[in-house]
Structure formats: C-alpha cells, structure tokens
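Help wanted!
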Amino acid sequence: ETGVTQSPTHLIKTRGQQVTLRCSSQSGHNTVSWYQQALGQGPQFIFQYYREEENGRGNFPPRFSGLQFPNYSSELNVNALELDDSALYLCASSSGQGAGSYNEQFFGPGTRLTVL
Amino acid sequence: QKEVEQNSGPLSVPEGAIASLNCTYSDRGSQSFFWYRQYSGKSPELIMFIYSNGDKEDGRFTAQLNKASQYVSLLIRDSQPSDSATYLCAVGAPAGTALIFGKGTTLSVSS
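Answered by r_m:
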C-alpha cells in the first residue's frame, strides 16, 4: 500500500509569484484535503476534493485554488503569493465523503513554502 | 466559529509515567475525534480516533470521549522519550469534510 506523497518538499518563492503543490493520495482513497500549518499552529483547512469536485472550503481567499484528477491526485495553486503564505502545506487523503463518513485522514510529508 | 482548545504546554512527565492530554470542542454536532502526533519538522501522524462516548484503548494509548461535556482526552501510559512530540486534537465536522485542529500540546518525556 502506497502512502500519501507530496512534491516538492521545499519551495522558495517571492511575493507576487504563483505556486503549484502536488499530492498523490493513498491507494484506495478518493478524497483529498489540503491544510495550511503556520509555525506553532494547528493545521487550518483550505479545501477538500472528492471525485474531482470541491467538497468544502475553509476561510481562505479565492487565490487559493485546487484540482483533483481522475486518479485522485490533487494540486493546490496559490496566486499572488504573500509573505503570510509561508507555511507547511499538508495534503491528507481519506476514503468516503459526507455525513456518516468519519473521515480518517492520513497526511503526506508536506511542502514547506517560504515566501520572501 | 467552531473551535478546538488545547493547553499548549509544555507538559513534562518522567519516563514511565502517564501523560494526560486534554481537548475541548465547541461544535456539539461533532461526530468524530482524532489525535495526531507531530514530531518537529514532520507532518501529523494519526495515532487514535474515537467516535462513541467512553474509552478506546490501543496499546499504550487510551482515548476518552465525553460528548455531553464536549471533552476528549488522550492518555499515554508508560511514557517514553520517543513520545516527546506535539499532540494535535482534531474534530470532524458533521458534514464529514474538514478536520478542525487545536494548536497542539507539546509533550516532553524525560529519561
């Protein structure tokens, strides 16, 4: 069984640039959630994708966008980077969706984004 | 605003002792509860989940849930230095999408 993978591991960008982060879900999982974790904080929910559709979104501006592909892998895109976007970006995969799905989420290793 | 509260610590215990980590949550409709362990510089690792009131044991770990008090806890028996990490409490929204995380409690186990 393959776990959740993310790329790249680290990334340095300058303010105003755009970035794309990638995630491959765990084998058998059809749902991908993205989280942002600032230093010293718990992860904050960005959005979730289920069967290629956005299935819930946290309190993040529209410059945070995503995609899910037919193989359930996913991308997180961030436009017009700001200094406060510097954080660990975590992808989590799970199976099932909606009420009654208890949503055990397994995290990938994360992408450390630094915005200068 | 759905919130999950944890004491940030640090919680310091000697090797072999019981470590008790606590968490409260605000959304009474929450249905699923998780404990993640996060080592410095690493991603969170799921160690326990609980859905029903009461206790759930897995090896040295026991999760306890009291929905009436909106309280969930994690007990670690026979604490080891390798248990030193930040423990994140997460609560599943009723719709089954987002996990709402606390800020985490830092545990330090001294040998």
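OP: Thanks! One thing I noticed: Residues 58 and 76 of chain A are 14 Å apart (CA to CA).
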